[in-house]
User: Which sequence fits this backbone?
């Protein structure tokens, strides 16, 4: 029987990484300040001491070299896991990911099993460059996989599975969940399949499709809606954006006939557009109302608290959208 | 094998005059350094008081480097300073209260609350606001220099970069392009020996970053960045050389980051002895001693200046605290520019 | 009265550029092989001779420096136009575009009037790296504008307007249209507003929303559908992806009640998802059938002709989708 | 000021023996060069016959550089060659018929029709397929070297880059990382004096690209790339130095691109005299003369080899032409790898 322990989201990622490194000598870490300093968020604290300089590499400030060298090491049979200090900086490795890592297997059949860890998301005045959720850009790139865990258990299970996956995986870690969210995490080996959504909350009146930190915003709104007038909201946590669990989403849409898509990333061509378009295409006859999107607006992430609050999707925004759709 | 020149320290007042500085300039340099440090010290207090959101960075130890370079720039030169270069903003005339407002995310901050901390600049003062992504502003500064060259203007661009950031491709592409086209640009590397927790030896495998200049076809100089006068002299030389068609120069200004990467970081990884050694080379204290030795500053003048700077910063902090936060509606404003905005002296 | 001349798409772009350079001394060009060689596609042939080395700069192979230096020059009051040799290489300037150029105005209020010319698209065995349509990535980035002209007249009018626009504009030139497509182009000054769609073909049974080279694929399918059984297909050519003409699209959707979204870019999170999601959200009650997307599949662009043919949306694919939707 | 060493030419047979080449190796080198040129010449004909889709690139003039380096690699070394390095594929044992099949987009091509022309490689032969984006494979090659170092394997990675591509950030980041970690890698710059139509003087502002090595903390060497034996000797030294823990080396192999960028390009921008000068230094002809002088090759052997290579290529072209095109369904296959695929000797 699997035992569990209560852990923060951050601890869960850290444990997943550490356990996988103990299990598999091919796994190594590379990134800026991940060794001596233990990472900007301390996810790899103590790793240098346990695994040594060869497996925990403090790299130069070189996102292109970090990702590119992971690709090379992976082609030689290693299982590299790199960290972008903030997910925002992945823009500096865009070409290596989209051009090299994502396409190498299709082109010449050689797998590139790398993991890129990406502390992401806003909520603490990080400003335009320490708050973004860049998964939307990469969702458009065939050949990459993308995980966005919401719970500590999934954070552990998905980082482990990401390492084992034979493809490049972008692993988004929402910074606002790191120390704020605690949950039961299975002890010992625990892997969560990429591409399987989690039914976060069952409901019958409408569905919210979301992932990452917004799962909690959805949950708050759902609770308020229920308390207020008994509206029963279902929440589907995608867990991974690529591949994404179309079946779970379409089933929920068929069940409730009303769907809200929610993400913290910006609106236009965000992944929510793909979800909404797919539902509109494949569940057209199931729908009793339009698929509504609740997202950040099409702006950079502003710094000042009143602006950032207006930018980030809030519980009230979701609640208002629930009302709008419920009464449709 | 080091190939860059190592700058000899400025010794005499004679040398200083040769470098185009009069008594007033020398005092202004001191004042700018005091204001620079004052802004950051006060900012740090405000931060601990919870009045500044986000994170907070200081450039303690870099005041001489930043003020020295900025003093050597002419009014219509432009620069793209980075996270340790508060002294550049101060020297170019950015009003301290607007910097505090920037820190606090107020509507009167240089980015009107859209961005925070050192991600700011006033283009009317010839400064370009940095992005976080380092050193993405080096290609941009190179483009400024390209514009000057195309228009045959006698202006110079100055681009800053950290020792850590010099590892990124943007530094290479910018320096290479500047070298090929012999552009009027000076590259400054603020080498404070660390990139966050990463020491120089894990950032690059050569003796001096200034050695790289050679590989782009221009001169590299290693300068003691704690010595404002030497920094000034070398920056002045390089900037005027660029202005006269002599092409780029790379100046590596060696200092030590005297505080953590940001104020959450206690910098446990920096050896005590190194901190102590550089503590003794504090750029402000060093320069103060020199001013006194040269009888440029006496006790009276010094006290007056301290009082004055203190008042300036008190007023500035108060004014910033009293200033308004941006309205939430501003969130949606300004993503795109309107055609009228191109109707400036720059853009005509 | 405006006179017109029959020109290729390529000539139209070339003329637009040349005329704007003659009108405005602040406009200069920078890119790889655009001077002595006249550009990989000869769009700037003769420009070096006419405008000299200062205004037609053969740059080193440095996409980051090219775009970054355009940003700097623009901040100093120039109007730079750069060329990526193939649009695929814009991945190497992703950070400069998305992090610097796109966000500078929002952050500190300084306009960045640059144009990035991007020869794009497939159809001649260019393989995975000389055939892509990367507009989908950039459509997700607030602060950029994106033009994708289909006709020679629009190619001229939009390149001129892109240069005059105070924002960074990505100008996609479909390589397959360069010499194949001819049309009437207004002589002399001619600018086309960014954000206004063009009604390419009027129809009443269903609408195809598209842009770029796919306008011609849509047209062929529409003609075939009409000839065959009188199905009347409306075609809306967006002309620009950012901003996009939501109103024109929603009006067409309201008129025909059935919509196909068509693009050559790959499927998931392509710009078609945004269009389809928006229609499904805002024209829900107008629709008599699901919004269907016809796009390339989620793979890199394959090289070998039979594979590339299977990859690119073909007239038959559009026709089959017309049939499916018409009989819905 | 050039800082890189300029390699002295190999003069005597003695030196060749010192560099670990026996008579058989010397003949094999010649044969590989002939096959290399033969593949590209024949490819060009097939292209003009409309049998090869897309565009077509040749490496004429670079045969010595490519074969020389590849000959110096050991069987378990790895390399990431670029667009002028057909000789590397040939030397490592890629079957010519599969290269023709690659050119033609056939199912038996090295990329099974998914990619075209030189975007190919057989990882089982220790080669990594390039992407178009230059020089994106340098960081990748650096990662191979990192893996070797971490696993304490005595293997070396070789990363290729053009003179033009050396301007891009990827080159810088890769070399810097390799320098910091003293990785077992050799960087080769195929300096054929042009990047498409862009001459060296518009690509970089320094005398030799090899001068850059210094700026990353390792040695740079300028080598006459038309001289296969000198290339071999320098590559051999550098590779064995890397294997022995001596860290990276940058070799700049100077040649001239003897044909257009691709075959659509008549290279009008390359001065005639330059082409004539390098025509006289044709690497195959030069080496052929040397082999004859040294009596390693006589007329009879040469004729036999020519006939043999001709037959090889005839058969190869025929086999490729007869081979199947990929099925359209393949378009959707292979975007993602399956777990079983990691179950190779490399990946265990
Ligand atoms: C491209 C990029 N990657 C990572 C970071 C995160 N980061 C911010 S400052 C810093 C260290 C910079 O070091 P250095 O260039 O030496 O400047 P310093 O802070 O020491 O002045 C890092 C890693 C960043 N800003 N940009
Ligand atoms: C990042 C990038 N930009 C542009 C191109 C288009 N391009 C292909 S080859 C080439 C010239 C390359 O020159 P060089 O590196 O000297 O190699 P050579 O072709 O001369 O061998 C260019 C510009 C490219 N492949 N990659
Ligand atoms: Mg530093
Ligand atoms: Mg070349």
Assistant:
């Amino acid at each position: 029987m699997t035992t569990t322990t209560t852990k923060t989201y951050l601890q869960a990622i850290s444990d997943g990484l550490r356990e996988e490194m103990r299990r598999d000598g091919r796994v190594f870490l590379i990134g800026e300040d991940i060794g001596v300093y233990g990472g900007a968020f301390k996810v790899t604290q103590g790793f240098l001491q346990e695994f040594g300089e060869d497996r925990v590499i403090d790299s130069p400030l070189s996102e292109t070299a970090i990702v590119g060298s992971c690709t090379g090491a992976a082609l030689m049979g290693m299982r590299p896991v790199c960290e972008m200090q903030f997910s925002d900086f992945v823009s500096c490795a865009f070409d290596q990911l989209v051009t090299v890592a994502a396409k190498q297997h299709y082109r010449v059949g050689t797998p590139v099993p790398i993991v890129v860890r990406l502390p992401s998301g806003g909520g603490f005045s990080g400003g335009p460059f320490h708050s973004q959720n860049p998964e939307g850009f990469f969702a458009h790139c065939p050949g990459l996989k993308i995980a966005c865990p919401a719970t500590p258990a999934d954070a552990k299970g998905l980082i482990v599975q990401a390492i084992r996956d034979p493809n490049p995986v972008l692993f988004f870690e929402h910074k606002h969940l790191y120390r704020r969210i605690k949950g039961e995490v299975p002890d010992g080996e625990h892997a969560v399949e990429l591409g399987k959504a989690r039914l976060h909350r069952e409901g019958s009146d409408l569905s919210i499709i979301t992932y990452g930190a917004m799962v909690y915003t959805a949950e708050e709104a759902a609770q308020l809606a229920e308390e207020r007038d008994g509206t029963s909201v279902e929440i589907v946590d995608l867990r991974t954006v690529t591949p994404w669990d179309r079946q779970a989403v379409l089933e929920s849409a068929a069940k409730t006939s009303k769907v809200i898509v929610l993400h913290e990333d910006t609106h236009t061509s965000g992944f929510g557009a793909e979800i909404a378009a797919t539902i509109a295409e494949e569940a057209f006859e199931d729908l009793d109302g339009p698929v509504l999107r609740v997202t950040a607006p099409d702006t950079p992430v502003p710094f000042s608290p009143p602006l950032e609050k207006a930018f980030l999707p809030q519980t009230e925004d979701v609640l208002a959208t629930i009302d709008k759709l419920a009464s449709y | 094998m080091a190939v860059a020149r190592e700058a000899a320290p400025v010794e005499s007042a004679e040398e200083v005059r040769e470098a185009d500085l009069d008594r007033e300039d020398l005092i202004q340099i001191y004042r700018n350094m005091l204001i620079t440090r004052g802004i950051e010290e006060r900012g740090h207090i405000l931060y601990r008081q919870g009045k500044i959101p986000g994170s907070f960075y200081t450039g303690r130890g870099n005041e001489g480097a930043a003020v020295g370079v900025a003093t050597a720039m002419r009014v219509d030169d432009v620069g793209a300073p980075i996270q340790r270069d508060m002294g550049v903003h101060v020297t170019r005339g950015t009003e301290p209260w607007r910097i505090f407002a920037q820190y606090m995310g107020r509507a009167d901050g240089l980015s009107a609350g859209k961005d925070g901390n050192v991600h700011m600049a006033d283009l009317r003062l010839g400064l370009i606001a940095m992005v976080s992504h380092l050193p993405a502003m080096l290609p941009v500064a190179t483009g400024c220099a390209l514009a000057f060259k195309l228009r045959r203007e006698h202006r110079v661009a100055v681009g800053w970069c950290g020792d850590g950031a010099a590892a990124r491709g943007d530094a290479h592409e910018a320096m290479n392009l500047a070298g090929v086209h012999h552009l009027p640009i000076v590259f400054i590397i603020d080498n404070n020996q660390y990139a966050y927790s990463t020491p120089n030896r894990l950032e690059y495998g050569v003796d001096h970053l200034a050695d790289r200049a050679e590989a782009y076809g221009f001169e590299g100089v290693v300068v003691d960045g704690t010595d404002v006068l030497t920094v000034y002299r070398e920056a002045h030389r390089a900037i005027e050389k660029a202005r006269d068609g002599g092409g780029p120069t790379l100046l590596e200004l060696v200092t030590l980051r005297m505080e953590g990467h940001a104020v959450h970081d206690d910098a446990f990884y920096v050896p005590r002895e190194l901190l102590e050694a550089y503590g003794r080379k504090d750029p402000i204290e060093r320069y103060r001693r020199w001013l006194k030795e040269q009888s440029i500053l006496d006790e009276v003048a010094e006290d007056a200046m301290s009082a004055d700077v203190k008042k300036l910063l008190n007023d500035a902090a108060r004014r910033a605290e009293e200033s308004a936060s941006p309205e939430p509606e501003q969130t949606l404003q300004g993503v795109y520019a309107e055609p009228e905005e191109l109707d400036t002296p720059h853009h005509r």
Remarks:
- The pocket of thiamine diphosphate (ligand 1) is lined by residues A 32, 61, 63, 85, 89, 92; B 83-84, 132-134, 162-165, 168, 190, 192, 194-196, 257, 261 (CB under 6 Å).
- Chain B has a mean pLDDT of 96.
- The beta strands of chain B are 5-6, 78-80, 157-162, 185-191, 194-195, 198-199, 219-224, 249-254.
- Chain B is about 40% helix and 10% strand.
